[in-house]
Amino acid sequence: MLQPISDNTLNAALRRLGYAKEEMSAHGFRATASTLLNESGKFSPDAIERALAHQDSNEIRRAYNRGAYWAERVEMAQWWADHLDGLKKGG
User: Fold this and answer.
1) Please, are residues 38 and 45 in contact by the beta-carbon 8 Å criterion?
2) pTM (2 decimals)?
3) First CA to last CA across the chain, in angstroms?
4) Would you kindly state where each structural domain of the chain is located, as residue ranges?
5) CB of 78 within 8 A of CB of 51?
6) What would the pLDDT profile of 30-43 be if each residue is shown by its tens digit?
7) Rounded to whole angstroms, how far apart are CA atoms 35 and 33?
8) Phi-psi region of 13 (alpha: psi -120 to 50; beta: other; left: phi over 0)
9) Are 62 and 56 in contact (CB under 8 A)?
């Protein structure tokens, strides 16, 4: 099974880019995404949590329910990409 990279890997990359601990952290990106996605009102909180890889506490459900909210998560990913593109363009 593939293991996700650690927050330390991403935090080290942020430090090399010049961001101080007080400015940004890997978890900060997740918190920002969660806040903006929830505030948009476009997506269910469960789909947002699943997209952020927050695991279901029930081990059986977690093992067999990998595609939960798939269509909504795809739509959410596109919305997020469009949102970031808009920010990049100054909007």
Assistant:
1) yes
2) 0.71
3) 40
4) 7-88
5) no
6) 899 999 999 999 99
7) 5
8) alpha
9) yes
